[in-house]
Amino acid sequence: MRTRTRALVVVFSLATDCSGPPYAIMRILIIEDSEILRTNMAIGLRKQGHVVTEAADGEDGLWRAEAGDHDLLVLDLGLPKINGMVVLDKLRQDDMTTPVLILTARDGVDARVAGLRAGADDYLVKPFAFQELLARIEALMRRSHGSATNVLRTDDLELDTAAREVTLDGTAIKLARREYALLEILMRNAGAVVSRTDIETRIYDDSVEPNSNVVDAAVSILRRAIDKTGRPSRIDTKRGEGYRLRSQ
Ligand code: CA
Fold first, then answer.
1. What are the 10-residue block averages of pLDDT along the chain, 248 residues in total?
2. If one looks up domain 2-144 in CATH, what number appears?
3. For FRET with 32, which of 41, 72, 111, 144 sits at 20 to 30 Å CA-CA?
4. How far is the CA of 47 from the centre of ligand 1 (A)?
């Protein structure tokens, strides 16, 4: 057992430095009781720009899954407090359609089959390499988004969620992860007000202190990046409501 854990650490420390094809920023909930495995997955996925929430047991995981707005769940089946299988059942019974990737033991064929029947979208057998986790996640995302275009457009702003590139009037602009995530949610809802809470859930992760003014900071950095000098900001502040990306 000790050997296997050590082998995993090596795989992950090598793999998390790889720069795979960038994809849209996702909110991923990892429910896994092995701290080393959970932490390594979280570090790797955060390096890819994703927003990661962690839960160490089934009870906390179920609560977070039901309370939060996640794009994908990574769910270990063997969990303390509430078994992963029960977590999955409960979520599907509650009509939660978020894609779920289950993690199973090498000899867990029955569990894997039961997991897929209970509504899991894919599985990974432990131990696995980080690249494999990333590839499965990207495949799940492509599947859940269908073959629709990856490019969002608002006036002369373009955001390619597959390449994670933003162009303004044809010129590429560089945005840090948080500002990119902010622009993505504003563009997906262009012309409509996006609440602070919705923005927070997209751009916050466990590493941000609650009550910090990360939303305001991200908005002002984004304004500097996309607004033209001497023109009114493209991002309206709706006091007490949120922010809106204007669309002409
Ligand atoms: Ca486990």
1. 39 34 72 97 91 96 92 95 95 91 86 89 92 89 64 88 86 91 88 86 69 85 92 92 88
2. 3.40.50.2300
3. 144
4. 24
